[in-house]
Design brief:
Helix content: 55-70%
Keywords: Signal
Largest sheet: 2 strands, antiparallel
Radius of gyration: 23 Å
Number of domains: 2
Shape: elongated
Number of strands: 2
Number of helices: 6
Length: about 160
């Protein structure tokens, strides 16, 4: 049992996102939570985070805070509470890590339609993913409504030239 607790504590101190949560007490967690909330409000670091993902992070932080406030520190938590704390922390860390990765800017040099001059096109990974999903949805909608997708692309729009 002591081994399990030591192993669990080691895992708790090595979370998945770039700036790991190292809160051992309720006060530590409050400071960490404030920094995460500032980062979420600035939208720079976690721009790819959807509203439902933000709520998931907030719920996980609430759960962690409730556990630490009830017992004072990680060391005082019962084994089942440590597991609940770890799971909440992992949900928050994984969501934040994925959002930070989606906020990474990627640039490509492309020629615009009708021009030989290349331009830089820069978008976050999340923006690129949303644009690809929108294009797939638009294509599917055209196909479902019986439009000839090949002639739309060749002629510049529905109904030909």
């Amino acid at each position: 049992m002591v081994r399990f607790s030591a192993f669990l504590l080691a895992i708790l101190l090595a979370p998945a996102h770039a700036e790991p949560m190292r809160a051992r007490t309720a006060e530590d967690l409050v400071a960490t939570r404030q920094q995460i909330e500032r980062d979420l409000a600035s939208d720079a670091r976690y721009a790819g985070l959807a509203p439902d993902q933000r709520r998931l992070v907030e719920r996980a932080l609430d759960e962690m805070q409730a556990l630490l406030e009830a017992r004072g520190s990680i060391d005082a938590l019962q084994d089942a509470e440590k597991v609940a704390f770890f799971n909440a922390q992992e949900r928050a860390n994984t969501t934040l890590a994925n959002a930070a990765a989606d906020s990474r800017m990627v640039c490509r040099r492309e020629r615009r339609l009708g021009s030989w001059l290349p331009t830089n096109e820069c978008h976050t990974l999340a923006e690129r993913r949303r644009a690809a999903e929108q294009a797939r949805d638009d294509h599917g909608r055209l196909v479902r409504h019986g439009h000839d997708v090949e002639s739309i692309g060749a002629a510049g729009g529905p109904g030909g030239r």
